[in-house]
Fold:
Amino acid sequence: MSMEWYVVLSALLFTTGAAGILVRRSPLVILLCLELMLNAGNLALIAFSRMVGNQEGQVFALVVMVVAACEVVIGLGLIVALFRRRLPLDVDELRELRG
Amino acid sequence: MSATAWAWLVLLFPLAGSIAIGLGFRVLSERAAGALGTLAIFASFACAIGALAQLLGEPEEARHHASALWDYASGAGLKIELGIYVDPLSVFMALVVSGVSALIHLYSFGYMRSDAGYRRFFAYLNFFVFSMLLLVLAGNFVLLIIGWAFVGFASYALISFWYRRATATAAGMKAFVINVLGDVGLVLAAILLFRELGAFDFGTVFARAPEQFATDEWTIVAICLLLLVGAFAKSAQVPLHTWLPDAMEGPTPVSSLIHAATMVTAGVYLIARTHVLFELAPTAADIAAFVGLATLLIAGTIALAVTDLKRVIAYSTMSQIGYMVMGVAIGAYSAGLFHLMTHAFFKALLFMAAGSIIAAMANEQNIDRMSGFGRAMRFTAAGMLAGSLALAAFPGTSGFFSKDEILAFATERGGMYLVFTVLGYFGALLTAIYTFRLIFRVLPGKPCPEADELMRTGHVAHGEPRNPANGEPEDTDVGFPGPEHHIAEQTPSMRVAMGVLAVLAIVGGLIQIPGAWHLLGDFLAPVFADSHFAHVHPSAGAEWVGLAVGAAISLLGIWAARVLYVSRPELPGRLIERFGALHRFLVNKWYFDEAIDLLVVRPALAVGRFADRVFERFVVGGLVGGAEGTVRGAGGVVRAVQNGFVRSYALLLVIGFAGLALYFLLSGS
Structure:
């Protein structure tokens, strides 16, 4: 299988994620889409690592996974906190920080 | 003890007195503060005599000593010492200043007794004397300027002594501002001298100046003119004189101190001290002489018209200082300083007598309301008469010898300087007339109510305390010498001070008698030995002729005053009617205040208003407002982006990254 397919799949996943973030209002879905984008990046890293023939890209992918895990922990924590304080689960409603 | 050690003690006592009274006012009783202040000045006078005795014991050429306590600044070719210079001139000045000041302190001890600010008064008074002594004993221009500025401050503090009186605070500010103008001139002169000669101390400056400057070179003329600005401001010469009559707002002993012993003589001293420079710049010296002449005539004419007792005497001071400035400017140094000394005696005395009369009049100063004090207050009247005789140069009195010595010197120099002789004698005529106008108004005649009360009951009149300048009621908490007034007849300390001065005013002239002896001239000779005029001496015969003319003019003036104010009392009124415009011109003091207001104050105010309306509003306001507007506008744009929608942030990110990616793609291919 040639490289292009990996990269195309990765780009598709990334675009799906980005589009999801831009159009959806539920913080849970946005979090999912973020994960999707990170994993699209991971896929590209691993594919390129295979192509170049060394393992540095894979190490990077591991690091990204760790970051993603941390991000999920915090993101889910925030969502649970929102839920428990009976705040709307809608990012457009949560806009107190506007300038 | 060396002369310089005595001189340091001369400085120490008034300073110590001022500090002790100023800090110890809670501990010291009023009596003790007054006594301490008075004793400090007497001690200072005693030390000045010590310095004199020491100097007289030395050979004439060796009678100059410099002494320094420490270096004020040193390095890079600059050396300023906290040093004094003791020579016959400074010792003479220290003697006059401390001697007359001591008597004025003694007078104040009684005169100010009921004043609420008694201790404050003596602290200021001691500081004033210290400043003046510092000025005359200073050994370099820096210390001279310090003393000069201290004198200005002390005069401010004392003129506005009754600080609840609006006119007094205004007069104090006026004196201070005009004096600061003089300080600026003096500072600039000192800086120019330093630039040219590289030194501040008198010895070096006066030794190098003749080598450095050609006669009448523009630099030395500029330096001398700047020195003159300082001298004119302190010595109240035209046109910087307007503060002096206003300074009458202060207590009468202060007027006495400013006019007789300290302050106004500083300009005369400065010219005498820097005579080396003035002889290199004859143009500047001539300007000084003409200003002195103008001042003596202008002040003499104003004194004919004003009706305020103290202001008449104030204008007579200006006039007499005009003689002194003229004298030292034309090279008659010892004559000018001789007049300085005799003037100190009789002017201090005149102010003391005036203070006593004003107290008896319950703070009324208008001479038109006074009469009959000759019988009501015999001692004061005698003192006033003695002072007036000396001021009018009555034959045999001190003013007679000193004034004519200046004029005889002017005659001796001849040529253009004859103008000074002729107009100087005319000024002497004016002096005699206005002086005896005062005497004939105040002393003889039917006693006015206050004098009558004093004569019948022995009580000093009580009046509602009012500001003599504008008639406003006074705040007696700090106002006019308390509820009680003190007159010389009932106060021993005032009598002693006036008695001593009366004797000096009459006989003080005997130290210089033409053809017989010149005690003062001989004593001061070493200081002026390097002068071009050291060997210009009017012959004894010429001096006696001058004295005869002076005597005739003095008697003529007194006779004229007698005709005007005693034998034909309706005449002044008719003259005023006939020459109404001239009288108004004189009463308004030649409109000097108005002219200064028009030429200086109003333009300055206009510039200020212009700066406020145009510069402040448009330039400064535009800059500040513009900067603020830019920040606010930029902030608005940035704020619009921060709309709180997470997804729009994400969109911006995506667009940004897409843009970046596009850029790299396009630039890579």
Observations:
- The first helix of chain A runs from residue 3 to 23.
- Chain A has a mean pLDDT of 89.
- The radius of gyration of chain A is 16 Å.
